[in-house]
Design goal:
Layout: E1 2-9, E2 18-24, E3 27-32, E4 42-45, E5 50-53, E6 55-60, H1 73-83, E7 85-90, H2 101-114, E8 118-121, H3 137-140, E9 147-148, H4 157-170, E10 174-176, E11 189-190, H5 193-198, E12 202-203, H6 206-222, E13 226-228, H7 234-245, E14 250-254, H8 256-260, H9 281-293, E15 298-299, H10 314-317, H11 328-337, H12 344-351, H13 353-359, E16 373-383, E17 402-412, E18 415-419
Parallel strand pairs: 1-4, 6-7, 7-8, 9-10, 10-13, 11-12, 13-14, 14-15
Antiparallel strand pairs: 1-2, 2-3, 5-16, 16-17, 17-18
Helix pairs in contact: 4-6, 6-7, 7-9
């Protein structure tokens, strides 16, 4: 099949020059302003839209195997394609947990059959993510992007040190959900003004940053490559900034909802409940500064779908987690770029080159390579409607929000995987 994606702006020309992208047998074969030589191609006219390299999300939950009523590889990957993502890394809180080569293969069988974009699984750090026994890191190493017990902080210092030591030998990252269980005290939203005024139990910031502090010391001891999931507090930013200044092998991510929302935006609705929680305005500003100065290199969605029933029980009793693949870029572009707070490249790099470089994901938009890109109409304004989503999940704190930027087209691995009609 031959495609001609016509009239798009490329980022390396600072969106000043239009071009036409010719794709033949899945490969980008030319970038040209001349359409006349390629009239045998299927022409997709996207005049004045912007082409970006395909986005990469290093933190999603596709729930399969084990919880396919929440999401599947099929539905999750198509949700990613609709948001402009061409690579995602799936967390291991599944059934069975990918803690051995045998269990991992169950997930890979589904990925090979049903994924429309590149899906790279994590292996767990510990058996069944229980934190008691090291998983078969050696047996899984060739089939995973990294190791994580996401959803659970590894509580034992000794277990985490053992995991880091082994992961370093395998040249794999340890990707940590940092949460000290002794400090949770039954909390489920940020321990701040909203919790006090509405009678909710809060999750203190220390439950996150205290375990980051511990892990940084273990990185000093082991030399392991270490990545922190979904940071949400100002203390976390400062700890990671200081560790990086020492030359430690550390990276981190935050999510769109932490960069945009604060506890002042909370409502008595399960769509505002996630872990870690949306925190204070001071935390949000620290995260934004961390993104600006490179302390935070990546923006990941922590896309975590649940059933409508599981998210209908209010802030206290709803399951933790929201969806994000189909809203991430429009929300970030509208709230951070169009507002003048960030330049476009300051949002694009954490969605593309930064995660790819850190996680060893080889992708590029260039002639001679498989087509792997997305095209956005940055001027199209609309209201986020979860009923339009391709994910099975519908719970998002951004429902009803007016945004600019609609994904018109996504190619992944040479295949046309999303086209907005």
């Amino acid at each position: 099949m031959k495609y001609l994606v016509a009239g798009v702006f490329l980022p390396d020309s600072e969106f000043h020059k239009k071009t036409n992208v010719l794709i033949e047998d899945g490969v980008v074969v030319s970038l040209s302003a001349n359409m006349e030589d390629h009239m045998d191609a299927r022409v997709i006219s996207l005049d004045d839209c912007c082409l970006f390299p395909g986005f990469t999300d290093v933190h999603v939950h596709f729930r399969e195997p084990g919880f396919s009523y929440k999401e599947t590889i099929f539905s999750g990957s198509r949700s990613g394609a609709r948001g402009g993502y061409t690579t995602v890394c799936t967390m291991p809180n599944l059934n069975p947990v990918p803690d051995s080569a045998e269990h991992l293969e169950e997930q890979w069988n589904i990925i090979r059959k049903d994924a429309c974009i590149q899906v790279l699984p994590y292996g767990s750090i510990t058996v069944d993510e229980k934190g008691e026994q090291l998983a078969d890191l050696d047996g899984m190493a060739s089939g995973v992007v990294a190791f994580s017990d996401d959803g659970h902080g590894v509580q034992s210092d000794g277990m985490m040190k053992q995991a880091m030591t082994r992961a370093r030998g395998l040249n794999k990252l340890i990707v940590a959900h940092c949460e000290d269980n002794t400090l949770l005290r039954g909390g489920y939203i940020h321990d701040g003004k909203y919790a006090r005024e509405h009678g909710h139990r809060g999750i203190c910031s220390e439950s996150e940053w205290k375990q980051i502090e511990r892990d940084i010391e273990l990185v000093r001891q082991t030399g392991c490559g270490y990545h922190v999931c979904h940071i949400s507090t100002k203390e976390s930013v400062e700890l990671i900034r200081k560790a990086k200044s020492e030359g430690l092998n550390i990276s981190c991510e935050t999510a769109p909802h932490y960069l945009v929302l604060t506890e002042d935006d909370l409502q008595e609705d399960g769509r505002f409940k996630m872990n870690p929680p949306i925190r204070s305005s001071e935390d949000r500003e620290a995260l934004r500064r961390g993104l600006k100065d490179g302390t935070i290199e990546m923006i990941a969605t922590d896309h975590a779908p649940h059933s409508a029933e599981e998210k209908s029980r209010g802030l206290e009793k709803s399951a933790m987690g929201v969806v994000g693949l189909e809203t991430a870029f429009p929300v970030l572009y509208t709230e951070l770029v169009r507002s003048g707070l960030f330049r476009l490249e300051e949002i694009l790099n954490p969605l593309t080159v930064n995660p790819q470089k850190r996680f060893g994901i080889k992708k590029s938009f260039e002639i001679g390579k498989p087509a792997d890109f997305t095209v956005y109409d940055l001027n199209q304004e609309y209201v986020i409607d979860p009923e339009e989503f391709l994910t099975k999940g519908r719970s998002t704190p951004f429902a009803g929000r007016k945004v600019c930027g609609r994904c018109k087209l996504t190619f992944a691995g040479g295949n046309l995987v999303w086209e907005d009609q």
